[in-house]
Specification:
Layout (H helix, E strand, L loop, with lengths): L9 H9 L6 E3 L6 E7 L2 E7 L5 E6 L4 H12 L5 H6 L7 H9 L10 H10 L5 H15 L2 E3 L2 E2 L4 H4 L4 H6 L6 H13 L3 H6 L3 H8 L7 H11 L10 H9 L8 H11 L4 H13 L6
Antiparallel strand pairs: 1-2, 2-3, 3-4, 5-6
Helix pairs in contact: 4-15, 5-12, 11-12, 13-15
């Protein structure tokens, strides 16, 4: 097992793997223990959680397990100390944020790659998590390479660039099919685009992403936060608008005003705050 993996509760592990950051993981329901199987880029993993919160991870179908298991460690652990990241947030003066952090200890932003995030969040527009996962599953089954029995690798942009409009539609992406076709073409024609974005400041990188068809502000911020590790990105969706209205009394504020508030109030780690606010809000019972 890789060293330095955090100890997590069941609820936090489920939030990380099935809460809207990544869409390539599924719980093994036939196992009474907490066990998940999923993909990080083109590598499959099995993750199990012990009763004491210890994460046990195993690379599947891999010749060099140690190398690939270190990839999982990189995926789940920030470059900077996690407590340092938390301490950048205003939880000492923001009682609601403190409540969210205390309810979900160890929740963090996963360190995915931008190519995976761009595909995932174009597909995600106006879809629920099960629908997004279903679309990815269909893409892998129809166009992914077989890794080992029962598992197909998620297809890369090189494969996706060859799909027809009907191919895309057959995987349940709906009106996003032409956006995804055009995005695949652009990514393959300019394979260094994601490395170029690393050199841009946050506003410039956001604007660059919004040049892709089907990428608005929210999708761009998701790609920047989850795929490019830009912690100042603050994805603004229905849940976060509700948080801003109900918990921060920002009723009637425009998206631009809310984003400005978030950048000032939550600061350089606004994206981490967003994760806690989003996850906590989704767990609350809603009145009919």
């Amino acid at each position: 097992m890789p060293a330095d993996l955090p100890r997590l509760g069941v609820g936090v592990l489920r939030e990380l793997l099935d809460g809207g950051q990544t869409f390539h993981w599924n719980r093994v329901l036939s196992d009474p223990a907490e066990r998940w199987v999923g993909w990080i880029s083109d590598q499959a993993f099995q993750v199990a959680l012990s009763l004491d919160g210890t994460i046990r991870v195993r690379a599947l179908g891999s010749g060099n397990a140690t190398e690939y298991e270190s990839r999982f460690t990189h995926w789940i652990i920030q470059e900077t100390d996690f407590q340092t990241e938390l301490d950048r947030l205003p939880w000492r003066s923001d009682s609601h944020l403190e409540r969210c952090i205390c309810a979900l200890p160890g929740l963090r932003v996963l360190r995915q790659d931008p190519a995976t995030a761009l595909l995932a969040f174009i597909i995600s527009a106006n879809k629920q998590i099960p629908q997004i996962k279903a679309a990815h599953r269909k893409l892998a089954l129809r166009f992914g390479e077989s890794a080992f029995p029962g598992f197909n690798r998620p297809p890369g942009w090189d494969v996706l660039s060859k799909l027809s409009l009907e191919d895309w539609k057959s995987c349940g992406v709906g009106y996003r099919a032409p956006y995804l076709m055009e995005t695949a073409r652009r990514v393959v024609e300019d394979p260094g685009i994601f490395q170029q974005m690393d050199k841009l400041d946050y506003p410039s990188a956001r604007a660059r992403l919004m040049e892709f068809p089907g990428v608005g502000g929210k999708v761009a911020d998701c790609v920047l936060l989850y795929g490019c590790h830009r912690q100042q990105a603050f994805p603004l969706d229905t849940w976060i608008r509700r948080v801003m209205t109900d918990r921060y009394s920002l009723s009637g504020w425009t998206d631009a005003q809310i984003l400005h508030f978030a950048s000032i109030h939550f600061g350089a780690a606004a994206g981490l705050a967003q994760q806690y606010l989003f996850a906590w809000e989704r767990r609350q019972p809603r009145s009919s």
